[in-house]
Amino acid sequence: xxxxxxxxxxxxxxxxxxxxxxxxxxxxxxxxxxxxxxxxxxxxxxxxxxxxxxxxxxxxxxxxxxxxxxxxxxxxxxxxxxxxxxxxxxxxxxxxxxxxxxxxxxxxxxxxxxxxxxxxxxxxxxxxxxxxxxxxxxxxxxxxxxxxxxxxxxxxxxxxxxxxxxxxxxxxxxxxxxxxxxxxxxxxxxxxxxxxxxxxxxxxxxxxxxxxxxxxxxxxxxxxxxxxxxxxxxxxxxxxxxxxxxxxxxxxxxxxxxxxxxxxxxxxxxxxxxxxxxxxxxxxxxxxxxxxxxxxxxxxxxxxxxxxxxxxxxxxxxxxxxxxxxxxxxxxxxxxxxxxxxxxxxxxxxxxxxx
Amino acid sequence: xxxxxxxxxxxxxxxxxxxxxxxxxxxxxxxxxxxxxxxxxxxxxxxxxxxxxxxxxxxxxxxxxxxxxxxxxxxxxxxxxxxxxxxxxxxxxxxxxxxxxxxxxxxxxxxxxxxxxxxxxxxxxxxxxxxxxxxxxxxxxxxxxxxxxxxxxxxxxxxxxxxxxxxxxxxxxxxxxxxxxxxxxxxxxxxxxxxxxxxxxxxxxxxxxxxxxxxxxxxxxxxxxxxxxxxxxxxxxxxxxxxxxxxxxxxxxxxxxxxxxxxxxxxxxxxxxxxxxxxxxxxxxxxxxxxxxxxxxxxxxxxxxxxxxxxxxxxxxxxxxxxxxxxxxxxxxxxxxxxxxxxxxxxxxxxxxxx
Amino acid sequence: xxxxxxxxxxxxxxxxxxxxxxxxxxxxxxxxxxxxxxxxxxxxxxxxxxxxxxxxxxxxxxxxxxxxxxxxxxxxxxxxxxxxxxxxxxxxxxxxxxxxxxxxxxxxxxxxxxxxxxxxxxxxxxxxxxxxxxxxxxxxxxxxxxxxxxxxxxxxxxxxxxxxxxxxxxxxxxxxxxxxxxxxxxxxxxxxxxxxxxxxxxxxxxxxxxxxxxxxxxxxxxxxxxxxxxxxxxxxxxxxxxxxxxxxxxxxxxxxxxxxxxxxxxxxxxxxxxxxxxxxxxxxxxxxxxxxxxxxxxxxxxxxxxxxxxxxxxxxxxxxxxxxxxxxxxxxxxxxxxxxxxxxxxxxxxxxxxx
Amino acid sequence: xxxxxxxxxxxxxxxxxxxxxxxxxxxxxxxxxxxxxxxxxxxxxxxxxxxxxxxxxxxxxxxxxxxxxxxxxxxxxxxxxxxxxxxxxxxxxxxxxxxxxxxxxxxxxxxxxxxxxxxxxxxxxxxxxxxxxxxxxxxxxxxxxxxxxxxxxxxxxxxxxxxxxxxxxxxxxxxxxxxxxxxxxxxxxxxxxxxxxxxxxxxxxxxxxxxxxxxxxxxxxxxxxxxxxxxxxxxxxxxxxxxxxxxxxxxxxxxxxxxxxxxxxxxxxxxxxxxxxxxxxxxxxxxxxxxxxxxxxxxxxxxxxxxxxxxxxxxxxxxxxxxxxxxxxxxxxxxxxxxxxxxxxxxxxxxxxxx
Lengths: 355, 355, 355, 355
Fold this sequence. Notes:
Number of strands of chain A: 13
Largest sheet of chain A: 7 strands, mixed
Number of helices of chain A: 14
Oligomer: homotetramer
Largest interface: C-D, 53 and 54 residues
Mean pLDDT of chain A: 96
Distance between the termini of chain A: 16 Å
Shape of chain A: globular
C-alpha cells in the first residue's frame, strides 16, 4: 500500500524540534567561553534548578549512554554492583559502558513485569549481596529506567519504595530518564515528586529522543555525588568545547514546556495506536505490555506483521524469533513528531491484514 | 580603549560556520536510520575516501579528546606506551583520557622544539623501551599533533621520518589533527601526502575548532586497526543515536573546501598578527615559536600584556608565571571568523603599549 | 562431644603436603635466576607438557583467582562477555577479579543442575548474544569449573559438547580447575582427554586446595592465547621474583603422582561421608548434589545441624537461610589429609542427632 | 678464574633465611581459618603495630609490585597523578601495575640525584598540577623508594620535607620499602621515625629481597586509606587462601630482629665491596652513587667489566650501553647471605683486571 516508509523503529529516527534547531542557530553568534563557562550553560543549570525546585548539579552530555555510565561510575567503586532489570538499556544496549566507566563494576540483573524492578526481589538480592565481605563485589547502586524498556512508568510511590530499599543497603538510586518526559506526562506530577522527593539521587535527563539533536543532562540531587563527575566527563571526552551548542538545545527543550508538549504528543500517538490495535484483540493482536509512554509492544499474527512490513511500516521485532510460532512481538515507538495520519494508517492496515 | 572583548583565547570560543549550521537544519527533515546507518553518514565516509584518495574507515565523534583516546586505545594494549611530546594535548589537556580508554596504558613524554617530536630522540626512547621484556610497559604507539601545541607544522618528510621510526619499533603512528586543516593549508600538499603516504596509520581529523559545532572524524588508514573502534566508541557513549547531525556537520565542512577556506582565513589572521607584532621586536615583543598555523606564542613585556588586557583583549598566559620576570609568554589563537579589524586593533594597541 | 574442632569448612583450611614443604626447603639452596628463569620453573613446564602430552605454555601464580582472571583476560576484550554458571567461583567469590583483569568485561550467568552448564542453554544464550552488533557486549569466552561449585564433575564428552558450542560462536573455552585433580581422579582418564582433547583452550590448574601452600598454574593449550599473559601477570603483580618457591611446589605436586594421590584421598573421604550420611535418608538427611569429588552438599534437619555444630564440627551453610524451615543445606569439604576417624565421627554424631 | 658463578645480579636471586623456611614448616600443622583469619596473621598485625608503635592496618601480599600497586590505587582516583622519580621501580619495572590497579592514573616522573626526590622540584611540579581544573589529571600521591633504586637512603628529615609538600597539595605520601630494612639499618632510627612520624601515609614493607620467600606487607598508617584495600587485594587475586604461609614468613622475619640482622649483613657486604673498589679510583673505577644500603653502582673500565664477567661474576649493566665508551656502569647487589669471601674475590679480581 504505502510507498514511503512510515518509521516506528525508534524515537531516535526522527529529527529535532524546530525550536531547538532555531536555538542552535541563535546560539551561534559571537565568542563565548568554552567548556561550559558560557552563559547558556549557566541558564540551563538555573532552569533545571527551577524545574526540580532545588539546587542541582548539571552535566550536559551528548548521549544517554554517556549520561548513564557517568552517573553509575559516580555511585560505585570498581568492585561494586549495580542492580537493574534484565532488560535495562544499561545492561543490554550500551556495549558495557557502565562496566567501562566504573572500572569493572558488575551489573546484577533482576526480573520484573514490564521491565520494572519490584522492592521485594530487590531487597532479597541486596540482602544476599554479601555486604562487607571481601570475596564478593559490593552492592553500590540501583538503577531503573523511567519509562522502562517495556514502555511502563513507575509511580512516585513505586520509586520511593525502591529508593528506600536501595538506601537501606547503602546503595545510591539512579534513574535512566531517556524517556523521562514521556513518563512525567503520564504521571502528571512535578519533576521533583518524580525524582528526589521519591529518593532519586541522580538522573539521566533525556532530551535526544524527545526532540533534541544530541543532548542529555546528568542531574545530580546529592551534592556529594557530583564531586567526581566533572573529571570523569572530561576524561571520557564528553566535555564539549563549544558547549553552548549542547546547552542551547537543553534551554530550548525546557523553554515554554516544549519538552512536555513533545512528550505529550508522542504519548498520545502511542495511546491512539494502542486503542486502534486493541480492537483487533479477537483476531490475535494483543498488547504485550501496558502502553504508558510512547512505546507499544504488540503481539502480531505472522500475516499481520508480514503485511505491515510489506506496506512499508518500519518497526523492530522484540525478543528472539521463535521458529514455527504463529505470531511474534514487535515494538512500535511514536515520537514528538509522529503524524496521526501515519498512526491511523497503521491501524487501518493492521485491521486489513488481521481480517 | 575597546569596550567589547576581543577574544583570542582559543579557536573554540567562536561559533560555527553558517554553512554548517544550515546543513544541520537541512539534515533535520524526515526519519532516517539511527546510529550512523543514515545516508549522510555514508556520504561523509565517501567524501573522506575521496579526500584521502583511498578507502578509509571513518568514525565520527563529538570531541577531539574522544577521537584521540579512541585512536590510541585501538593502538595499544593496557600495558602499552604511547610516545608523545611533553606538551601534547593528549598528555596535558585530556584529564587522562588516553589512559582511561586504553585501560591504563602509559604516555612517555619527549622533548622537542616547538612541541615537535624529532626522529633521533624518539628512536632512542623506543630503543630503550625494553621491547618483549615483561617488566616493562611495551612500546605501542607514537602520537604527534598537527599543527603542534606550539603552532608549528610537520612537513610530510618530517612525518615520514617519525613514522619510519615508529614502525621500525612495531608502533602505530597517530596524528592528533585537531588543527589538521590549518596545517594542511600551510603545507599546500594533498591530505594523502600529509597522512598515510607519510606513514600515518590513523588520524583524529578535527572540525570543531575550524568551524563545526562539535564534530571530529576518526580516520583509519590501516584497516586492521579499525576492527575494535566501533565497539570502543559505543562503549564510551560516543555513538550518537541521531548521527545524521554529526555527519551533516562533517559533510558541510568538506563541501566546497569550506574546511580549507576556514583554515586559510585563520592562518592568514595569525600571520597578519605575527607580522604586526614582529615590528615591535626592538621593544621587547618576540615570537616564542614560529607561526605556521593559527596560533601565536608571543613574549610580551608586562606593561604590554597588562595594557592589552585592560583594553579588553582576551588571551591565555602560556606556561607558569615567573615571579619578578619583566615579561611573559601569551598564546593568541585566531579562527575561521577572526575579524581583520580585531587583529589590527591588537597590533595597534600593542604598539601603543610597547612605546 | 568432641573438644578439638573438626574442620570441614574448606580444603583450604588445611596445610600442605610434607613432600611439598620439603621441596620448598630443598629449593632454597644457592643463587638462581629470578622471575621464572630458574631451572625448577623450566622443569615444571616440562612436567606439565608431559602430563598433557603436548606443548603447553605455563604461568605459575599464587592464587586461583589470579589464574582465572588472567585466563579470562587473555580471552576477552573489555567489551566481551564470559558465559558461566550462576554459582561459578569467578562470578560469586572473586570480588569482580575477572571484570578487573579484563578491563570491564561482563559475566553472563546461566543456570544448570549441580552448577554445571549444559550445551543447549549455552547455545541459546550465545545465539542471542548479538555478535557483531556494536550495541551489545560481545560473546568472548565460556568458563566452567571442574569439579563444579556443587561438587559435580563434567565428563570429557560433556566438556567437548560445551567446547563445541563455545567455539562455534567464536568463544574460547576455559576451565577453572581449582579442583581439577579431584575431578580427574573421578574420571579416571588422562589429563589430555579431560582438557585439550575435549576442546579446552586454557586451564587454571589448581594445587593449593590439594596440598600446595599457594600454587596454581595457568596452562594454555592454544599458543596464540598465551601471548599476552606474561605481561598481564607481571602487571598484576603476580610474577614472583623468587619464582623457584612457587615452581618447587608444583614440581613436588606433580612428582610421583602426589597430586592424584592427594585428590584420591580427599574424594574417598567424601564418598565415605556420603555413604554414611545416606543411611540417614529416612531421617531427613539428604544429599543436595551428587558427590563426585571432595565436596558434600547435605540437607540437614535443624537439630542435626545444631548438634554437629555443638560437637565442634565446622562447615558452612550453603545458600541463604530460610526462616522457619525445618532443615538447611550445608557444605562439607574433605581434603588430602582428612582423617578417616574424623569422617567416621561425623557420621556417628549425625546418626546420633538424627535419631 | 672462578668456576661457580658468584651472583650479584639482585637480592632476589638468593633463597630464604633458614628461620623463615623453618617457620613455614611449623605453620603447616593443623587446620586454621583461611584468607587471613588465622592466628599467625593476627600476630603479624600485632607485631607490626609494636614495631611501628601505633595501630596499623596490615595487608600481606606475595610481591612488592602488588604491594605498591595496591597502595597507590588506594591513594589516587583513576584521573589522579602519582609523582615519583624517573627511575622508580613503580615507573620502570612493574609493567604498568600502578596504572592498572589505579584504573588508568598517571605517573609523573621527576628527576633527582641518586634517584631521590627533592622537595623543591616536587613542590614546583605539584604547583603546576592544575588542581581542581577538569582538563588536567589531578595530583593524588607522591611515592618514593626507600632505599632508592640507586642505593641511596632518605633521612627522616628528608622524608618529612617531602611529606609536607605532598600533604600541602592534598597528596598522600607512599614509601616503596622493598629495601626498607636496609635503609632502616643505615638510619639507625626507629621504624616509626622513618615512616609515619615523618609523614608517611602508607608503606610497602618488603621482606622478599631480605630473606623471605615471597612476602611483603602493606602497612597503612592512615586508617581512612585502608578502607578499600581489602576489596582491592581480593579483586586482584592477592588474598591468599592459605594465608598462614604468607604470615608465617613475616612473623619469622620480624622475630628476634631477623630482618634487621639480615639487612645489616647485606649492607655490610655492600660497604665492604665499596671500600675495596674505592681503592681502584685511580684506575678508572668509580662509585656512581653513594653506597648507603645493599646496592653498588660502579663505573668500570671495559677491561675490568669483561674480566669480571669472564671470571664468572654475575651483575647487571645499568643504563643503556654507549657505543665506543671506555667504561660503563654496573649494578652489584649484596644480600642477607652474601659470602664475605665472594665479596673479597670480587675486589681481588677487579684489582687484578684494573692493573
